[in-house]
Design goal:
By secondary structure, the protein is an alpha/beta fold. It folds into 2 domains: about 210 residues, Rossmann fold (3-Layer(aba) Sandwich); about 260 residues, Ribokinase (UDP-N-acetylmuramoyl-L-alanine:D-glutamate ligase). It has 17 helices and 19 strands. A 12-stranded mixed beta sheet has the order 8-1-10-19-18-17-16-15-14-11-12-13, sandwiched between helices. Strands 4-3-2-5-6-7-9 form a 7-stranded parallel beta sheet, covered by helices on one side. Helix 9 packs parallel to helix 10 and helix 16 crosses helix 17. The mean pLDDT is about 95.
Length: about 500
């Protein structure tokens, strides 16, 4: 498993509980002191993000998350703010009971939640449930969440109703404008529904010593933004053959644009040579629009053989189709012994007849393709994306990119990287074709499959963010080419 970098390390909720317990038992930090530190960090976040707020509404549950909320409410009182606190229950447990008493001693009043009760404030603090909730919100808690919608929200540790392990919510869920994660990042805050529910994310480690984390493996990591670690600056005394030859295969009738996007993405990300094997009908259009791509009309495996011989990396699948032509190219490609990025229709063909790999392979499924590869369904894949990407990587002995909100990259040995970039404008035709070309270009320039996939996903997502700016609707795949070139050269890393 990965080594620990606090800003990049992601943990399961069970692991974070183990860190909490180590901080108390091994490091001698009382649980109530940890609660105080959490409240201090969250209140500082609130004042920084909403400096003009004068009235604070607080939702407090009965457990430790509610204890954090009570202590934050006490800090707000002492700062001269109006506090309207609504408690889900009439009492609290453990250290949260002491936090509740401290709030009351400071002059606070807790209103008990009821059918007509909702907190009032310029900002709402969500302290209903923390990471321990593993069921949908229901009853009064769900009603409180519904009545509190439409106001700025600060969530403590995790938005109530969100599964902090998987990033999914199966019922009512707080939609926060900001979430302060305590002790360590919970892995589910960066994928699936969490992308919409968490808002801006902040990490507060509560000044825990390194000893609290010892012996607790990191479950996953956030993607690295620095391409320079894998692709150093180029020497001057080089030629195009030093940077690999990508062969992009696909573009059945009517889908020539898909394979052109893949080929151009490979060029823009630094591949020395890029050839395209496609239907003859597409060659003229590709050569006219992008003459740097060496497009060839290919009818069968025999015509493909010399192109495969010259290539160092294959980008297989965009627009390939599921007919006889696509199947012939698919079979020839996967028996060539070349490193390969497998996408789109090639993934569907792979699901029909799984293959063993003789060289580096990267699979790039969206949830529907992942479901076919696993013999499952989309809902099951999305219910636990971490489990899905790990099983795909293990089963297919390849690096796997599970695309979507918070894309995951998994390796056969269990490593997982989560991409924190990207935007909803990237849910448009051709984006996956571009990603295939990006990863193929990195493979061609000497990256192994793991580095090419995780850095390729990061480059692609960051280019999408740069191209979208504050207007994601209407973003098209070719908009990524200019920022991709800038980013692959280390700008903004």
């Amino acid at each position: 498993m990965p080594t620990r970098d606090p800003l990049a390390s992601l943990y399961t909720t069970a692991q974070v509980r183990a860190i909490d317990r180590a901080a108390i038992d091994r490091c001698g930090i009382p649980g109530f002191e940890l609660m105080r530190r959490a409240a201090d960090a969250a209140f500082a976040c609130l004042r920084r993000r909403w400096p003009d707020a004068r009235r604070i509404g607080v939702l407090a549950g009965s457990g430790n998350n509610g204890g954090d909320a009570f202590l934050l409410a006490e800090l707000a009182l002492r700062a001269g703010m109006d506090v309207d606190l609504v408690a889900l229950t009439g009492d609290s447990s453990g250290d949260a009971s002491r936090a509740r008493a401290s709030f009351v001693e400071a002059g606070g009043r807790a209103r008990l939640a009821g059918n007509s009760v909702a907190p009032v404030g310029d900002v709402l603090v969500d302290g209903l449930f923390g990471t321990g909730l593993k069921r949908p919100l229901d009853g009064l808690a769900a009603e409180l969440v519904g009545r509190s919608a439409g106001r700025p929200v600060l969530a403590l540790d995790v938005p109530s109703g969100l599964d902090a392990d998987t990033g999914t919510c199966t019922g009512a869920c707080v939609r926060a404008d900001a979430t302060v994660s305590f002790v360590a990042w919970k892995r589910g805050l960066f994928t699936a529904d969490a992308i919409d529910q968490c808002g801006a994310r902040e990490l507060a480690t509560l000044d825990l010593p390194q000893a609290a984390y010892e012996g607790i493996a990191v479950d996953a990591e956030l993607a690295d933004a620095c391409i320079g670690r894998a692709l150093p600056p180029r020497r001057a005394n080089v030629n195009k053959s030093r940077f690999g030859h990508v062969l992009a295969l696909g573009g059945d009738h009517g889908y020539g644009g898909a394979i052109r996007l893949t080929g151009e993405a490979a060029l823009r990300c630094g591949a020395g040579l890029v050839s395209i094997a496609t239907r003859a009908a597409h060659v003229g259009a590709i050569n006219a629009a992008r003459p740097e791509l060496m497009a060839r009309g290919v009818d069968d495996a025999a015509a493909l053989a010399p192109l495969l011989e010259r290539a160092s990396v294959l980008a297989l699948g965009p627009g390939l189709g599921l007919g006889d032509w696509g199947r012939r190219l698919f079979d020839a490609a996967l028996t060539s012994g070349r490193s390969v990025v497998v996408d789109a229709d090639a993934l569907t063909l792979l699901a029909e007849a799984p293959r063993a790999w003789s060289a580096d392979a990267v699979l790039t499924p969206h949830p529907g393709e992942a479901a076919r590869l696993l013999g499952s369904d989309v809902a099951s894949v999305q219910r636990d994306r971490f489990a899905a990407v790990r099983e795909l990587a293990r089963r297919h002995a390849a690096v796997v990119v599970l695309k979507g909100a918070g894309s995951l990259v998994g390796a056969p040995d269990g490593r997982v990287v989560v991409c924190p970039w990207g935007n909803p404008g990237m849910a448009s035709a051709g984006m996956g074709d571009v990603l295939t070309g990006v990863i193929a270009a990195l493979l061609a320039q000497g990256c192994n499959a793991w580095d090419a996939a995780r850095l390729g996903v990061a480059l692609h997502a960051r280019a999408g963010d740069e191209a979208a700016g504050d207007a994601p609707r209407g973003l098209v795949a070719s908009d990524l080419f200019v920022p991709l070139r800038r980013l692959v050269n280390g700008a903004g890393a």
